[in-house]
Design goal:
The structure holds three protein chains of three kinds. Among the domains of chain A are: 116 residues, Dipeptide-binding Protein, Domain 1 (Dipeptide-binding Protein, domain 1); 224 residues, Roll (Dipeptide-binding Protein, domain 3), CATH 3.10.105. Helices cover 29% and strands 22% of the residues of chain A. Chain A contains 17 helices and 22 strands. Chain B has 16 helices and no strands. By secondary structure, chain B is mostly helical. Chain C is 73% helix and 0% strand. In chain C, helix 4 packs parallel to helix 7 and helix 10 runs parallel beside helix 11. Classes of the chains: A alpha+beta, B mainly alpha, C mainly alpha. At the A-B interface, helix 1, helix 4, strand 10, helix 7 and helix 14 of A face helix 2, helix 3, helix 5, helix 6 and helix 7 of B.
């Protein structure tokens, strides 16, 4: 016996020692005021990603890794500015005519691709052709199929004609424009330029080492001015715990944190600035409205009243989020601040359920109706810690009023195909990442029910339908806002979803970067003006 | 023996065929298609777009039709392109296989270097605390979840002490380094993964060597050698070890597929761009051209490894070689 | 009882056996030993370090880690034992069939094993779990069904060598039925390699479960298993070291015990390793 213990003791004490010991290494500098001298060029910005990019082509790529790079290498005709308004990007001006049936874009003169050739309206036409080409593997064709025709009367003008006014159209033109002279020949889907892109953007592609990193360098001829940070390095680090360790080691300059990491010991973040802003997403409990259990609105309202949302926000998000009352986050113009959420009121919940026929008839704390207990299963996908935690908390709140909620966590693909798509679920906890435009036709319209479509809860309300259709057609901002605010109220009251919370984005950025500012759109909107003072530059770049 | 070996070789063909059919079938029985990762739950993607993608990938045909198409291409050495990023499968493998061979090769070498002497030591000092100590040491490696040990070592050597990089294979300024600096950089990045990988793989080989040597030591011819008065070192190294190492060759042959396989849990933790992650991510995203290619390659290597091990074993054991067994 | 005496003298096997017994007892007594219900969350006490009220601290939902570890022991042991049970049943049957029946059965089974062994184990597991969902029953079955091949080969080898031994030949000569020969004469002689394999297999199954948990395909939360507590803990490794340390050590100690026991049994039972 004694012979074995020394080894075991060693093994035990080693991990204890290294985990318990305080940080032995000091951060790289003690940040104080910004050194004088104005913006300096140089240094590199290192970001970390869980996955590698797939296509560096705005027409083809849907994953966030690809889009991070695409956003730096390409520009769209328009973009969202820091206050979430549409502003010109490649287009120096644009106007909508005839209620939105025609949009005219005028390109800035003198724009050049990163290989020196001029940007013309023909490139926009080419991008549009590819977006609507049936042999191209683009998933984005829906928005562009609404275009009746696209004219290019001169190299700097593009006129887009729509069969019907389509308000989200402007958002669709934030998609990057690609050059005809590069992609025009050869197989588009497998084109080598998908791995070596040429765009108009502030950063130029340098290298892509598969599953490892992508390197970009500043574009000296960028039309808005050369970015100060000379290199952008995108590192693939597939494990979140390791990303955090690299952050701790100051080997990456920015990471998106979880609420727990954000609140971690401040000593970790001596060298990083923390930012938080509401993201454009919401998490919800979706009721399958075709199930007899949830057909009765009183039951849904009871569940809403039985849930102490604040506890979820405090417990799951550590306070870094807001309770959700509808499908639009508070920073959106479509959000109606006048919509009051259901108050946490378990007594009211029980009363509503009693009205609907559910009583604690057997004295075991569970509600029964016609001899059957109130039990249902919530499904959610595996891999999302926050949703799991939300489910567990919801389960305990419902148990307190006599509802038995089971949780099933299912692998993503199986989850979608076996449960969501065929409508084979009682309720589900999921989230939507919406764009900035409030159009959510595909989620709520009664025509969007059916296998594979996004109205999988089966919601149908003629007034909501009408508002959704009108919202898509209306270009006048004031009228459009009214439409969506009405929709917000209706969706809150009808309870097809129990809207849970709007999470916040929690990025950190290394302190040496000057110029980082939070705005409604986030923090990256002025990336081209960030810089590192000469004395603090970390990476020497020629 | 030769006819036996020839028969074994011929069996490869139906075996590989069977493996490809099984992998293909299982992949297609799994719910979900490759188009999903791209399209699902994305508000900008309509149902029509998704269906169009499914057709473009050829996924709407029944699985045996897809299999026939795949086979047709494969016999012309065209393994197709990945569904994830349209990169030809051959190129994806080529980009990563070198890394895997490097890591697993170093790991195997280290295991051999450490396990064989440890095994010999254990056998020679059987029953003493040396034997038990070595036993416990190798078993610790064998008994621990690799990702946990990896994280602990990363914290110790990477964060606390700062001696080694935490993850990846190259530093950020690798391209600007000179030849020797580059080799040194890669070596530094390899230390932790190779250490963890070999530590967890030591046990098997060292126990094998120990037990094999113990078996041999008790044989008559060893007793004869000792009786003849030969010094113990000569007895062990010249006579016993040579015969005991024959099974080690078998193990090496069986380890051939590990050269390119390797745990993707491992590669995920160390952000190591290797074949393990390629295969795993392909399975999870139903990227079947990649899965089929990696699976077929692994199967081929396994079969070859088995075969070579068998050949070596039979050749080394004169009883089998002469046909008396 | 030569066996017991040799067993007691083998320190490794003894240590392993004692630890396993202690663990099994603790796991069985989990409902009584655990200070709090393993699923009870107390959000006010999340991520609390080890203290007198929470010996191993609390996790990110305020659940007591010690209680979860105790119940996790049950789950991990259950997974290990059942998976190995399946592995043993399938492996021994296949090995017996191949070795005893020979001919076509042998060839088919061996080729099947060859094909299955061509897939890296974890690949096989992945492919299967990805399409049936991961819950504890499926995990056990899948681990069992992907690890029987080695045992089958071992058993087959033993049967082949035993088949020609005198006592079997004389049993055949006496006209005993095949079934009787298999059950009464062959099987007991297989006991020792099977036992060793099974013991080592439990440790391996526990490690496989923790690997599957890392991928999110193991036992699903909120049901605790050491694998999923460790995986959940790894994301907090710098903020709450106790979440990963204790399950990691538990797995280490348990799997080591099984390995030591298995190796010890091998030494003790092997008639050739004369002292």
């Amino acid at each position: 016996m004694p012979r074995i213990f020394p080894r075991v003791a060693f093994v035990v004490s080693l991990p204890c020692a290294l985990l318990l010991s305080a940080c032995r290494r000091e951060p790289s500098f003690s940040p104080t005021a910004v050194p004088a001298g104005g913006p300096a060029d140089g240094d590199a910005y290192v970001s970390a990603s869980l996955g590698d990019a797939s296509h560096l082509n705005p027409v083809l790529a849907t994953d966030s890794a690809s889009n991070e790079i695409v956003g730096l290498v390409f520009n769209g005709l328009v973009k969202y500015d820091k206050n979430l308004h549409i502003a010109g990007d490649l287009a120096e001006s644009f106007e909508t005519l005839r209620g939105g049936r025609e949009i005219i874009f005028r390109l800035r003169p003198g724009l050049r691709w990163q290989d020196g050739l001029p940007v013309t309206s023909d490139d926009v036409r080419f991008t549009f052709e590819k977006l609507t080409d049936p042999s191209v593997r683009t998933p984005f064709s829906a928005d562009y199929a609404r275009v009746d025709r696209l004219e290019t009367p001169d190299p700097l003008t593009i006129r887009v004609f729509y069969k019907e006014p389509f308000a989200p159209a402007l958002e669709s033109w934030t998609r990057g424009i690609i050059p005809r002279h590069v992609y025009g020949t050869g197989d588009f889907n497998g084109h080598p330029a998908n791995r070596r892109p040429i765009g108009t953007g502030p950063y130029i592609f340098v290298e892509w080492k598969s599953d490892e990193k992508i390197i970009l360098k500043a574009n000296p001829d960028y039309w808005e001015g050369k970015p100060h940070i000379s290199r952008y390095i995108f590192r693939v680090i597939p494990d979140a715990a390791v990303q955090f360790l690299e952050l701790r080691n100051e080997s990456v300059d920015t990471v998106s944190l979880t609420p727990d990491q954000y609140k971690a010991y401040d000593v970790f973040f001596r060298s990083y600035n923390k930012f938080r802003y509401p993201s454009f997403s919401y998490t919800y409990l979706g009721f399958n409205l075709n199930r007899p259990l949830f057909k009765d609105r009183r039951v849904r309202e009871a569940i809403a009243c039985a849930l102490n949302k604040q506890e979820i926000i405090d417990g799951v998000l550590l306070g870094m989020g807001a309770p959700a009352t509808g499908p639009f986050p508070p920073q959106s113009w479509a959000y109606d601040p006048g919509v009051k959420d259901f108050a946490y009121d378990p007594e009211r919940a029980k009363a509503l359920l009693a009205e609907a026929g559910w009583t604690a008839s057997k004295g075991d704390g569970v509600l029964y109706k016609d001899g059957r207990p109130f039990a249902f299963t919530v499904v959610t996908n595996q891999g999302n810690k926050l949703r799991e935690m939300t489910a567990v908390i919801l389960q305990s709140h419902l148990a307190a009023i006599g509802i038995k909620m089971n949780i099933r966590i299912i692998e993503w693909s199986s989850f979608l195909h076996n449960f969501i798509d065929p409508g084979n679920f009682d309720a589900t906890i999921l989230g939507w990442s919406t764009g900035i435009d409030p159009d959510q036709y595909v989620i709520w319209h009664s025509s969007q029910r059916g296998p594979g479509k996004y109205n999988f809860v089966g919601y149908a309300n003629p007034e909501a339908d009408r508002l959704l259709e009108e919202g898509r057609r209306e270009f006048d901002p004031a009228r459009r806002r009214d439409i969506y605010r009405r929709l917000h109220r209706i969706l809150h009251d009808d309870l097809p979803y129990l809207f849970l919370y709007y999470p916040e984005s929690l990025p950190v950025v290394h302190k040496r970067f000057v110029g980082v500012e939070t705005a409604p759109i986030g923090i990256g909107w002025n990336f081209n003006t960030w810089y590192v003072p000469k004395t603090r530059q970390k990476y020497a770049v020629q | 023996m030769r006819s036996y070996l020839v028969r074994r070789l011929l069996l490869f063909i139906p075996l590989i065929f069977g493996i490809t059919v099984v992998s293909f079938g299982v992949m297609h029985l799994a719910p979900g298609t490759a188009a999903d990762a791209v399209t699902e739950m994305n508000l900008k993607v309509s149902v029509e777009a998704r269906e169009k993608l499914v057709k473009l990938y050829g996924l709407d045909k029944p699985w045996y039709v897809q299999y026939a198409r795949w086979m047709g291409r494969v016999v012309r050495f065209n393994f197709g392109a990945s569904f994830k990023d349209d990169v030809p499968v051959g190129r994806k493998i080529r980009d990563r296989i070198g890394n895997s061979i490097l890591l697993n090769g170093c790991s195997l070498a280290l295991i051999l270097l450490i396990a064989v002497p440890l095994g010999v030591l254990s056998a020679v000092k059987k029953g003493t605390w040396v034997d038990r100590g070595v036993g416990v040491f190798v078993f610790v490696g064998f008994s621990v979840p690799t990702f946990w040990v990896a994280l602990l070592l990363m914290i110790l050597f990477g964060v606390q002490l700062g001696w080694l990089p935490i993850s990846g294979l190259h530093s950020l300024d690798y391209e600007e380094m000179g030849f020797f600096a580059r080799r040194w950089d890669m070596a530094r990045h390899l230390v932790l993964p190779v250490l963890v990988s070999s530590f967890t793989g030591l046990a098997g080989l060292s126990r094998y060597v120990r037990n094999g040597l113990l078996d041999v030591i008790r044989q008559d011819y060893i007793r004869t050698a000792r009786a003849k008065g030969l010094p113990e070192t000569q007895v062990i190294f010249k006579h016993a070890l040579r015969n005991a190492l024959i099974p080690v060759i078998t193990i090496l042959g069986l380890s051939l597929p590990d050269l390119i396989g390797g745990s993707f849990i491992f590669e995920t933790i160390f952000a190591y761009p290797g074949m393990g992650r390629l295969g795993f991510e392909a399975v999870m995203s139903r990227d079947y051209p990649v899965v089929m290619a990696v699976g077929t390659l692994a199967a081929l290597l396994t079969l070859m490894g088995n075969f070579l091990a068998d050949v070596a074993y039979r050749w080394a054991d004169p009883r089998i070689r002469e046909g008396s067994l | 009882m030569n066996f017991l005496r040799r067993f007691r003298r083998n320190r490794g096997a003894l240590a392993g056996a004692v630890l396993i017994a202690a663990l099994a007892l603790a796991a069985a007594a989990a409902p009584f030993l655990a200070p709090s219900p393993p699923l009870e969350q107390r959000l006010a006490e999340r991520l609390a370090p080890p203290s007198s009220s929470h010996w191993m601290g609390t996790d990110d939902l305020g659940r007591d880690v010690f209680s979860r570890a105790l119940f996790g022991a049950r789950v991990s042991l259950e997974v290990g034992v059942v998976a190995v049970g399946i592995m043993a049943i399938v492996g021994v049957s296949a090995g017996l069939a191949a070795g005893y029946l020979g001919g076509l059965a042998d060839m088919l089974l061996m080729r099947l094993i060859d094909v299955l062994l061509c897939f890296p184990t974890i690949f096989l597991i992945l492919m299967v779990i990805a399409f049936i969902e991961p819950d504890i029953k499926n995990v056990m079955v899948v681990i069992g069904l992907t690890s029987w091949m080695g045992l089958a080969r071992l058993v087959r080898g033993e049967v082949l060598s035993l088949r020609e031994r005198d006592f079997i030949l004389s049993a055949r000569g006496l006209g005993l039925s095949h079934a009787r020969i298999l059950l009464v004469h062959l099987l007991p002689n297989l006991a020792s390699p099977v036992l060793v394999s099974a013991t080592l297999g439990v440790g391996s199954a526990i490690l496989t479960e923790s690997a599957l948990s890392f991928l999110g395909l193991g036992v699903q939360p909120p049901q605790p298993s050491w694998g999923n507590i460790l995986t959940a803990g790894k994301d907090y490794i710098h903020i709450a070291w106790w979440l990963s340390l204790f399950p990691g050590l538990a797995i280490l100690a348990t799997v080591m015990s099984f390995n030591l026991l298995g190796e010890g049994l091998r030494d003790v039972l092997d008639p050739r390793s004369g002292e």
